[in-house]
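Next comes a single protein record:
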Amino acid sequence: MSATGLSHFDAQGQAHMVDVADKGESRRRALAAGRIAMQPSTLATILAGEAGKGDVLGVARIAGIQAAKRTGELIPLCHPITITRVALAFDADPDHGTLRCEATVETIGRTGVEMEALTAVAIALLTVYDMCKSMDRAMVIEDVRLLAKSGGRSGSWQASEHT
């Protein structure tokens, strides 16, 4: 850990990958969520399965799973890890034209899966945007955040309602 207390910087202030060799393996879990706001008609088209590019939620789910597995390739200082479970769920609010995505990622390892859960949510929502942009270019991805994590030295953490 650097003098600043940030683990991704060495004593000289250079970015580096954290050494997790001395950490013990433990069961680790992270839960992240986010949403995409759109015109209610766009959401209705998605839910009806009538989008021109196909099953939007099915493709977004697969994209999120794939993204979680490849996070170590996308985020420069993340460790490539073995993921034991990825689950994505979508919850639509037709009255407000929003689609919420929640990702749960689990592993047994030396480092957490928070980045994998966040990446899964972000890529799933970007996939929804990509598949529906011809109907609604004004869609907004928002509130992507970590909701909870467990395992490792720091133990459990849960977001408050106000963060």
Notes: The chain has a mean pLDDT of 91. DSSP finds four helices and five strands in the chain.
